[in-house]
Amino acid sequence: MGFISVFFNVVLVDPMINILVMLYILCSENFGLAIIVFTFIVRGALTPLSVRQSKQFKAMGALQPKLKALQEKYKNDRSRISSETMKLYRENGVSPLGCLGPTFLQMPVFFALFWALRGTLPSTPENLTKLSDKLYSWLPGINQAIPIDDDFLGLSLGKITTDNPLPYLLPILVGVSTFFMQKSSSPPSSPQQESTNRMLLWMMPGMLGYFTLFFETGLALYWIVSNVIGIIIQGFVVGWSPILSIFSRSKSNDETESTQEDKQNLNGEENSDEVSGNDSKNGGRSDRNSVKRIKRRTQRSKNRRNR
Amino acid sequence: MSILVVFLFIGCMNYRANVGWSSPVVNDGNLYFATQSGDVRAIAIETGQTLWARSLKGTGKSRDQTTSFYGDPVVFNGDIIIAGYNGLIYSIDSNGDDNWVRKVSSNNIDSDSNIVGGVTVASNKLLVGSSDGYIYAFSIEEGILNWRFKTGNKIWSTPSFFEGIVYITSFDHHIYAIDLTDGNLIWKFKSDGAIVSRPQIIGDDLFFGTFGTTFYALNRKTGDEKWRFEDSSGWFWADPVIFNDMVLAPSLDGILYALDRSSGQIQWTLPVQSPIVSRPVIIGQKFALATTDGRVIVSDLKTGIEVGSCDLGKEIRSPLVSFDEYLIVTPEDGSLRLISVGSSGDLDEIWIYSLEEDFLSPGDKLWERAC
Q1: For residue A191, what pLDDT is reported?
Q2: Residue A156, SS3 per DSSP
Q3: What is the pLDDT of residues B154-166, one digit of tens each?
Q4: A108-146 burial code (b ≥16 CB/10 A, e <16)
Q5: Do B161 and B211 fall into the same domain?
C-alpha cells in the first residue's frame, strides 16, 4: 500500500503540482487562469480516450433498438437474450468493457488532480510545510511563486466554497454542468436500467453539488470547466441530440416511433439493414455515419458466416 | 464514472484539519501550553500534574468553537498571553481566569485574520502579525489597539523586537523594520521569496531564511544586505538560532546548515533526511533539533556530529523548548514529553503528559518510553 501511495504521488500528483505552479507563473500569477489552462491540457491529453469512449457509447446507442427487439423476442429465455446480445455486440465490434475502460483509465488522473489542487492550495499551515518537498527546485522561479495568490474573480480558490461570496453559485454550477455532462455521455441502457439511469441522472449532480459545498473553490472551478469541455467534446463526437433532447417536447414520441420501426426490422431478417435509432432521427451527420458503419460491419459479418 | 467520483469525494472528506504546533512556555517551575483540543493548561514541571485547564472559545457566531494554536504563549507579569488561529488574542491570569480577549481584524471577515505566528511583548506593547497582512500593536494591560501596519500579504511569523524597532517578515517577500512607538516604517528589504521565519537579531546583524531557499544576513539598522546563502534546495521555515559566531539555519530540504555569522560560509551541515519545521534549541555545547518524521537529534555544536537521538514516531513541527538540561517536545499526537539530555548527549524520557490520561508516570501501564 505504501508503495502504491509513493508511486501515485511521485508519478502523478507531484508532477501535476509543479505544472500547476508553473502555469500560475505563466498566467501572470492568476491561479484561476492556471486551473482553466490546466483543465484544457488534461482534457486534451485524455481526448483520445474520451473520443473512443464516446464512439463506443454511440455504437451501443445505435444497437439499442435491436437489443430491445431481442429482449422482446426472447423475453422468456434469459440465457438466449444474453448470448444473442453478446453476439450482436461482437458482430458490430462493440465491447461493453471498452466503454468502461477509458473511464477506469481516467480515474487515477482525476484522483491525482484532486490531491494536486489541494497540495498546491494548502488549507492549513501543516499542509503548506509539505509543499516544499513536492516542488522541483530546478524549475525556474517555482519556489518564489509560493504562496499562490488564490484570488480569482473575487473568489478565494483555496477556501471552501461556502466561505466565499455567493456561496451556493459554484455548487449549483457544478450540479448543472454535471447534469448536462451526464446527459450527453450516458451509455445507452436497457429498459430495466432506464429507471436507474434516470435516477442517477438527477441524483449525481445533486450529490456532487452538495459535496462541492465542503471543498475548495479551485476544485469546483476545475470541475465546471472540465464538464464544459467534456460536453463540447461529446457534442462534436456523438452529436448534440442528447442535450437538445432535454429541451425537446417531442422526444418521447420519436422514441416510440423508432422502437416500433426497429422491432419490425429485427423480425424481418432481410430488412435488418434498416436499423434506425433515436440519434439518427434527431442527430446530425456523424450519427448517420455511425449507423452506416454498423450496417457495414453487420453485412461483413453476415458474408463471413455465409462463406 | 459518477459513482466513482462520489466515492472519491467521500473518501477525501476526511481531510486533515488544523492541528497547531504551539510549544509550551516555562515560567516559575510551571509549563503553560495550548493543547490541540483548544484549551490552555498549566502543569507543574517537577510532577507533571495539571494545575489548571482553561478552554478557549471564539466570540460572536463562533463562541462555541475551539481553535488551533500555532504561536507560542508568552508570560508577562504572571499573565499568559496567546494568539489563536481564529484571530483572537487571549490574556489569562495565573489562575486561568480571563483578563481580556481581542479580535485581530482589519475588517469583519473572520477567515482573513488567522494568526499563525506568536505574540511578542515589547515594552508595554503586545505585537502580533495576522493573515490579513497587518501587524498589530496592542497595549498589554488592556488589549487596546495602539497602531497597525499593513504589509503586502499574509504574516505568519512572530515579530522580533530590538532597541525600539519591530522587525516583521511577510509572505510579500519583504522584511519590515517599524518604529515601535508609532508604527511608522523605518526601512524594508525585498528578499527572493515568502518569509515565515522569525528574524533573529544579534548586535547589528539580522538573520532570516525564505521560501526562495535563500538565507539572508542584513544590517538591522539600515536594512542593507551583508551576505546571502543560496545552497539549500528547500524552503527555510523554522526560526534560525544564533550561537556565538555561528548561525544554525534549518531547512525543509532536511539539512541543518551551520553558517559563519560574519561571512555566511558553511561551517558544517547535518543532514537528517526529513524536513525541519521545528526551531532547534541550544543546550550547553550541544543543540537539539526535531524532524517532521518524529526524531529528536542531539548534536555537537562545534562539529555537527550527532551524539544522541530518539524516535518518538510522531510528526514534530512544534519548536523545541529547553531549560537547564531538559528538553520539552510536543509531537503531533498531542502529548508533551519532558526529556533529559545527558552530558554525552543521551536522551532519557522523564514523563509524558497525555491529553487523554492527563499525566503518565514511568510506573503507569500505558507508559511507552520512546527514549
Answers
A1: 60
A2: strand
A3: 999 999 999 999 9
A4: ebbbbbbbbbbbbbbbbbbebbebbebbeeeeeebbbbb
A5: yes
Nearest CA among B252, B216, B207, B218 for reference residue B232: B252
Boundary residue ending a domain (B253, B277, B301)? B277
Helix (H, G, I), strand (E, B) or coil at B153: coil
The CATH number covering residue B347 comes to 2.40.10.480
Domain ranges of chain A: 2-306
User: Residue A214, class by beta-carbon neighbours within 10 Å (0-12 exposed, 13-18 middle, 19+ buried)?
Assistant: middle
Residue A215 in contact with partner chain B when CB distance is under 8 A: yes
Kindly tell me if the per-residue pLDDT of A305 is higher than 90: no
Query: Closest to B16 (Cβ–Cβ): which among A126, A137, A211?
Result: A126
In a shared domain, residues B291 and B210: no
Across the interface, whether the CB atoms of B8 and A111 are under 8 A apart is answered: yes
Strand order of the β-sheet with B74-76 is B74-76, B79-83, B88-92, B98-103
Report the alpha-carbon distance of residue A293 to residue A102 in Å, rounded: 22
Task: Indicate whether B238 and B370 sit together in one domain.
Answer: no
Judge whether B2 is closer than 8 Å to chain A, CB to CB.
yes
CB contact under 8 A, A214 and B13: yes
Domain boundary among B247, B277, B307: B277
pLDDT at B306: 95
For residues B347 and B267, state if they share a domain: no
CB contact under 8 A, B1 and A208: no
B132-148 pLDDT per residue, tens: 999 999 998 888 999 99
Helix axes A217-238, A285-306, angle to 10 degrees: 60
**Domain span at B366:** 278-371
The chain B residue lying nearest A208, using CA atoms, is B6
Whole-model pTM? 0.80
Structure confidence at residue A286 (pLDDT): 46
Residue at B9 is within a domain:
no
User: Residues B320, B284: one domain?
Assistant: yes
Cα(B239)–Cα(A232) distance, integer angstroms: 51
How many domains in chain B? Answer: 2
CATH number at residue B241: 2.130.10.10
* Residue B326 CB burial class (10 angstroms; 0-12, 13-18, ≥19): middle
Position of cell 442527430?
Answer: A283
Clarify whether residues B286 and B272 are in a common domain: no
Q: How confident is the model at residue A112 (pLDDT cuts 50, 70, 90)?
A: confident
